[in-house]
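Sample entry follows:

_____
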Amino acid sequence: MVTVTVSPKFQVVIPKAVRERLNIRPGQKLQILQFSDRIEFVLLQNIKNMRGFLKGVNTDVKRRNDRL
């Protein structure tokens, strides 16, 4: 587990090992989600880069009769 310190300006530094593992680059956007007493940072992906990311997903889902 990695620990960071909140600066007087409420800033935190993402440790180098985490930045490299997640390939975070300067200028990228992060979404911050709050769950009860914790926060999570989620990398926002460029929609153009997401093209085809669901390729190969199984779409055979048993549906109710009232659904298409």
User: Anything to note?
Assistant: The mean pLDDT is 88.
